[in-house]
Amino acid sequence: xxxxxxxxxxxxxxxxxxxxxxxxxxxxxxxxxxxxxxxxxxxxxxxxxxxxxxxxxxxxxxxxxxxxxxxxxxxxxxxxxxxxxxxxxxxxxxxxxxxxxxxxxxxxxxxxxxxxxxxxxxxxxxxxxxxx
Amino acid sequence: xxxxxxxxxxxxxxxxxxxxxxxxxxxxxxxxxxxxxxxxxxxxxxxxxxxxxxxxxxxxxxxxxxxxxxxxxxxxxxxxxxxxxxxxxxxxxxxxxxxxxxxxxxxxxxxxxxxxxxxxxxxxxxxxxxxxxxxxxxxxxxxxxxxxxxxxxxxxxxxxxxxxxxxxxxxxxxxxxxxxxxxxxxxxxxxxxxxxxxxxxxxxxxxxxxxxxxxxxxxxxxxxxxxxxxxxxxxxxxxxxxxxxxxxxxxxxxxxxxxxxxxxxxxxxxxxxxxxxxxxxxxxxxxxxxxxxxxxxxxxxxxxxxxxxxxxxxxxxxxxxxxxxxxxxxxxxxxxxxxxxxxxxxxxxxxxxxxxxxxxxxxxxxxxxxxxxxxxxxxxxxxxxxxxxxxxxxxxxxxxxxxxxxxxxxxxxxxxxxxxxxxxxxxxxxxxxxxxxxxxxxxxxxxxxxxxxxxxxxxxxxxxxxxxxxxxxxxxxxxxxxxxxxxxxxxxxxxxxxxxxxxxxxxxxxxxxxxxxxxxxxxxxxxxxxxxxxxxxx
Lengths: 132, 538
Known about the structure:
The structure holds two protein chains of two kinds.
Chain A: E1 6-10, H1 14-26, E2 30-34, H2 37-46, E3 51-55, H3 62-72, E4 81-85, H4 93-100, E5 109-112, H5 117-131
Parallel strand pairs in A: 1-2, 1-3, 3-4, 4-5
Chain B: H1 14-19, H2 38-44, E1 48-53, E2 58-61, H3 63-69, H4 77-82, H5 92-99, E3 103-110, E4 116-127, E5 133-142, H6 144-166, E6 170-174, E7 180-183, H7 185-191, H8 199-204, H9 214-221, E8 225-232, E9 238-249, E10 255-264, H10 266-309, H11 312-340, E11 348-350, H12 352-370, E12 373-377, E13 386-388, H13 390-410, E14 418-425, E15 431-437, H14 444-453, H15 465-476, E16 480-486, E17 490-497
Parallel strand pairs in B: 12-14
Antiparallel strand pairs in B: 1-2, 1-5, 3-4, 4-5, 6-7, 6-10, 8-9, 9-10, 11-13, 14-15, 15-17, 16-17
Helix pairs in contact in B: 10-11, 11-15, 12-13, 13-15
């Protein structure tokens, strides 16, 4: 696993991006934040990350749409995506089952807030190791 | 002539006797066929048959009488058939012997086995050839069993009547045209005299039958059907009812009417709604606590990391996150207390414009500091006070304005924002308050779930309980909430309140409102699904 791996955090809650960024930096990762799906796409175009932390339940289903876009785009489809589910909305088993059914394009992990630092780092490391 | 009879019995003339003993279909007389003995015929007559002289003494009794009352020849009837020592007062047989008219009556006899029989007696005078009354024939039919059945029937009818009138539910009997043909006492008490009126007119003030009418279904298939309905008593009180319809059949089995039984379940429904809200509150509480923990945990980590790195900016950022969560705890506790407290609304006559101005004053500086325009649009028409709980409505408006402010802060897509707090007096229809923002709008996915799950539209900000608090207060006022929201255009929430207020049992003054408290249609924003605030159930 490469150190200083680039992690793109896409979440509309600034508290979450600040927290995740701090945890990732403390553990040797290089995070970047985006606070909307559009912003996330723009950052992706600038620089391909090694891993994406994606808040699924951003407004107007943009998180879901962005996940689909990422997985259909040959430029990024091999980038592991960790789905982060919000506290304000439940991540139903239906959604999880749907994603699991996607076989090749399923998320590499799911995290539900509140996320402990160890949980976050563990999921990031496992996802990156799986790509090696 | 039968033995013991000094006179001719007209019915048993020799001519008539010759006709007896024939088999059906035979000719008028058969030569050589011996006639039946009249005495035999007499003995075989059904019932108790006695022949009396003018002194009421029995001079002939049939076999059945002798069997059950003993050998009574020569004894007066009152002694032989009742064990009495003197004639019955107003003896019917005596009357017959005097006036020569047949008569009938009911009387109780006592057998030689001391058994009391209830009989139907008929008495006919006997006349000699000159027409003089020389005696009487009495025929008694035992109607004890009939009387017993009659008494049972009367008892059953009394029980039925007591049940029909006394049960603590509303009963009507309706014909095929839904016309009420019978009602019980409970029904009359709460719905008035309704015989001859239509069921749907009496219960609901409708001009036509209800779409899902259990009475109609019962007429169709003869089965019992039930439904839940909301009706209005003559006092104006709205009541939730469970209605059962059962067929009433005639002797041939045809359904000629339906019995409709209704029970008032308003209390049960209210408790159901309160439990549902409580359940939602519990779910929201769990979410809120998770939100708070997330903020505290994340903020604490960032503070620690900032201190470790010597990065004051980071530490300060983390501290802001912690502070926000602490503020959230305060709001959360306040909302929980508001939800859980059984506070009785304190109604006062209030000028709606004044109340709105108080809320505007509360927020005006904060909006100005944040660079967001906050406009008050009071009602400019006639100013009549409205009866409401000023503290409760103040809380509602505060929640709505705070939500609008947050919506503007979250919407980074516009260079400026504007929030309007509007008052509109609708006369006898009441007053509505409206809070309109031009924030980012509320996504339909959140709107659809706002009522069911009371989720907050504000992400990690907000306890989510604000929705419950607002819902509770508006419901207490029998008012309604309605909402319109468009993506990128903003959200408008309207709180409509009736003039006067409704208690749980009566309308004090003003227009009727659904006891459910939420009537999205009233505000005329029908086309928008409920968004930030509660949506009516059903």
